[in-house]
Design brief:
By secondary structure, the chain is an alpha+beta fold. 64% of the residues lie in helices and 6% in strands.
């Protein structure tokens, strides 16, 4: 992304977002980690103080796996103290595991925190194994003649959801490898056909359409992502980008504001909203969102852009006020 600054020029907004996975072949700066996981540097520092990851200026893929687990647990309101107890318990129970956050899949299953160990779900504090069937077990159970109809239907639905998740993950991998757009669309299409409630697949499908300038299809996909997951800040943000791109500023502002209602620390939404308010000649609102953006993202290239825009906007506001006093 580039940004040409000047009184008559408008900065390029932060790009459209999708559900992505990081590449294991590179290092990531603190700023990149925070942007990738949509967390603040304060949150990252808190996790470092708790000893979940070592403090560093650059992070490897192994660290990102742990940080992604922490981010998901945080979104489910699992407090650091509880995570600390879980990590310590898993280390004590599983002698071959040094870093549970990076080596194991720790996730929220409703209100319960579970961990996946060798393909089985386990309650981390008690070590109790939880019901979780692989695909072959599901097939055998479905063929078992005495299985109740309701149980068979539930198992079949679970198998379908897993197949949908597999197509979704395949679509993400295909995008990262630069494979043909029709093939990527087909993978995400299979995912949402199998599981129409898979919001991440709808969102990525919309982003592929967006990048192809298929505006109507992208808008429909983002709408379905929100229908399946109400309160999906990323879908509101992407809709804001789409509406801005297609010349619908009032609708774009509404979507960016909804994203910020759900996630007030969403730095990219503040950045794009500041630019949009500048374009519709609302300098006071633009100033407010530039300030918030810089509070969340005080360093880096885009922070430099924001500071220059903020300074220019302040100067224009002062000059406008002075002219009004002279002419008045």
């Amino acid at each position: 992304m580039s940004c040409q600054l000047g009184a008559a020029q408008r900065c390029v907004r932060v790009r459209i977002a999708g559900v992505i996975e990081p590449s294991p072949a590179r290092e990531y700066t603190r700023e990149e980690v925070c942007r990738l996981l949509r967390i603040s540097n304060t949150i990252l520092s808190t996790w470092e103080r708790h000893g979940f990851v070592a403090r560093a200026t650059h992070y490897h893929f192994h660290d990102l796996v742990a940080l992604k687990s922490l981010s998901q647990l945080r979104r489910n309101r699992v407090r650091p103290e509880r995570i600390r107890r879980i990590v310590d318990t898993l280390r004590a129970r599983l002698s071959n595991v040094r870093d549970p956050l990076a080596e194991l899949k720790i996730f929220c299953d409703g209100k319960r925190v579970s961990v996946q160990v060798e393909g089985r779900k386990m309650e981390p504090m008690t070590g109790q194994l939880l019901l979780d069937f692989d695909r072959e077990t599901l097939r055998r159970l479905l063929e078992f003649p005495s299985a109740p109809a309701a149980q068979a239907a539930a198992l079949a639905a679970e198998a379908t959801k897993r197949q949908a998740q597999s197509w979704f993950e395949k679509g993400v991998a295909m995008e990262q490898q630069g494979e043909r757009t029709p093939d990527v669309l087909a993978a995400y299409g299979h995912a949402v056909e199998l599981d129409p409630e898979l919001a991440g697949a709808w969102l990525n499908l919309g982003t592929v359409h967006y990048n192809q300038h298929h505006w109507a299809e992208a808008e429909e996909c983002y709408g379905k992502a929100l229908a399946s997951r109400p309160g999906y800040a990323l879908a509101h943000y992407n809709l804001g980008n789409l509406f801005d791109e297609t010349g619908r500023p009032s609708e774009a502002i509404t979507q960016y504001r909804k994203a910020l209602e759900l996630d007030p620390s969403y730095a990219d939404a503040h950045y794009n909203l500041a630019l949009l308010y500048q374009s519709v000649h609302d300098p006071l609102s633009a100033l407010r969102h530039w300030r918030i953006y810089l509070h969340i993202e005080p360093s880096g290239y885009w922070a430099g852009v924001a500071r220059r825009e903020l300074a220019r906007l302040r100067q224009e506001t002062v000059l406008t006020g002075a002219n009004r006093r002279i002419n008045g």
